[in-house]
Amino acid sequence: MIATESLSKRFPRVTALDRLSLDIGPGVTGLVGANGAGKSTMIKILLGLSPATEGRAEVLGLDVATAGDRIREQVGYMPEHDCLPPDVSATEFVVHMARMSGLPATAARERTADTLRHVGLYEERYRPMGGYSTGMKQRVKLAQALVHDPRLVLLDEPTNGLDPVGRDEMLGLIRRVWTDFGISVLVTSHLLGELERTCDHVVVIDGGRLLRSSSTSDFTRTTTTLAVEVTDSDAHPDGAEALRAALTTAGVTLHAGVEDGLPGAGHILLLEAPGEETYDLVRDTVAGLGLGLVRMEQRRHHIAEVFTTGDQTQAQPQTQVPAQAEQQKEKEVPTR
Ligand SMILES: Nc1ncnc2c1ncn2[C@@H]1O[C@H](COP(=O)(O)OP(=O)(O)OP(=O)(O)O)[C@@H](O)[C@H]1O
Fold first, then answer.
1. What is the distance in A from the centroid of ligand 1 to the CA of 187?
2. Which domain of life does the protein's organism represent (predicted)?
3. Ligand 1: residues whose CB is within 6 Å?
4. Distance (Å, whole) CA 156 – CA 164
5. Which of 39, 81, 332 has most ligand 1 atoms within 8 Å of CB, for mutation?
6. Which stretches within 75-149 are classed as H helix?
7. pLDDT in tens, 77-119
C-alpha cells in the first residue's frame, strides 16, 4: 500500500523526516510518535502535497513525486486540524466533498447518507457544524475521507480532543473501515495504547527517524508469565496464599505480589511457566488443595512496555527508548 525509501524532509531549521524506509501492507497501520515526530509531514508527502527533500515514496504503486492527482483520487485524507466550515451542515459539506471527488449528484447524496450513517451521525447531520461537539466534528472529518470510496485512508490524529469514550468509539469506527469495507487505514497517534487495540501493524517514529516497525502481535507477543486466579474455600480462606505456598514448595518461581481478581474469587498469582509441565502442576495443585480454578492465562506484552522495559530485541539499530515514556500514565509518547 505504502512504500518509502530513505525518505527525508528537511526544513531550514529542522529535519522532519530522516531517511525513513517503510513498507506498509493492507489493513490498519498505526504511525505513532510524539508531537513533532514527523507524522503530519509524512502524510503530506504521501498525498503528493509536499515534496520530499530526498528519497522516494509510493502509494498504491504510484510515485508521490509525479502522480499526486491519481493518488488523491484513490486515497482519503482526514486532517488533524479543525477545517469544517461552521455555517453549513454535515450533509451539505460531505456532499460537496463527494462532488469534488468526481461523484455525480445522486451518487454523492447516496454515498453521503451511507457514510454519515456509518460514522454515527443521524438527525444532527442537517444542523450547521459550528454547533457540533469535537466528537461530531471528528466523525464528519472521517466521513468526508471515506465518501468517495477510497482504497486507503490517511487519518491524522483522529482521536485528538476526544474523551475516553469518544476515543473508543472512534477507534471502533476506524477498525470497521477495514473490516467492513476493506479500506486500508494509516492512522497517526501519539498514544501507544490505543493503537494496540486497533492496528494490525505499528510504525514508531521519533525525531523523523524510524524506531520500530512490526506487527502488533510482535509488539504484544506472549510472555512466559502465567496468571492464575483461584477461589477461596472453607479449608483455605485465602486460596491464593495457600496456592502460593504449595507452588513455592513444588519449586515454581512466583512473582512478588498479587493482582485483584473477580469480586469473591480471591486474587491473581503471577508465576513463571517456562513449559507445559508447569500448567499441569498448577492444575493438579489447585485440585489437590480443593480450590476452584477461575482463570489460568498467559500474559501478553503491551506495546508501551517496549518503551518501559528496554525490550529492544526487534528494534532497529538506532533505537532510542524515549526516557519519559515511563512517566506517562496514559501511555503517551512524550512530547518533545
Ligand atoms: N512547513 C514547515 N516549516 C518548518 N518546519 C516545519 C514545517 N512543517 C513541520 N515542521 C517541523 O517538522 C517537524 C515535524 O512536524 P510534523 O507536523 O510532521 O510532526 P507531527 O508528528 O505530525 O506532530 P504534531 O502531531 O504535533 O503535528 C516539527 O519539528 C515541525 O515543527
1. 17
2. Bacteria
3. 11, 14, 16, 33, 35-41, 157
4. 18
5. 39
6. 90-100, 105-118, 134-146
7. 999 888 899 999 999 999 999 998 889 999 999 999 999 999 9
> What does the DSSP assignment read for 314-328?
T--TT----GGGGG-
Atom of ligand 1 nearest to the CA of 44: 18
- Could you identify the residue written with the cell 522532519? 16
The complex's ipTM works out to 0.93
Q: 319 falls in which pLDDT band (50, 70, 90)?
A: very low
Pairing of strands 62-63, 54-59: antiparallel
The verdict on pTM exceeding 0.80 is no
Instruction: Report the nearest atom of ligand 1 relative to the CA of 208.
Output: 14
Q: Which CATH number fits domain 2-220: 3.90.1150.10, 3.40.190.10, 3.40.50.300, 3.40.1390.20?
A: 3.40.50.300
Q: Output the CA 38–ligand 1 centroid distance in Å.
A: 6
Q: Find the 42 Cα to ligand 1 centroid distance in Å.
A: 9
Bridge pairing between strands 209-215 and 201-206: antiparallel
| Cα 41 to middle of ligand 1, angstroms | 6
Domain 225-302, second-level architecture? 2-Layer Sandwich (3.30)
Please identify, by atom number, the ligand 1 atom nearest to the C-alpha of residue 157. 25
Q: Which atom of ligand 1 is nearest to the CA of 38?
A: 18
Tell me the DSSP string of 161-220. Answer: T--HHHHHHHHHHHHHHHHHH--EEEEEESBHHHHHHH-SEEEEEETTEEEEEEEHHHHT
Pick the residue whose CA is nearest to atom 28 on ligand 1.
36
Dist. CA 208 → ligand 1 center (Å): 10
Question: Distance from first CA to last CA of the chain, Å, rounded?
Answer: 30
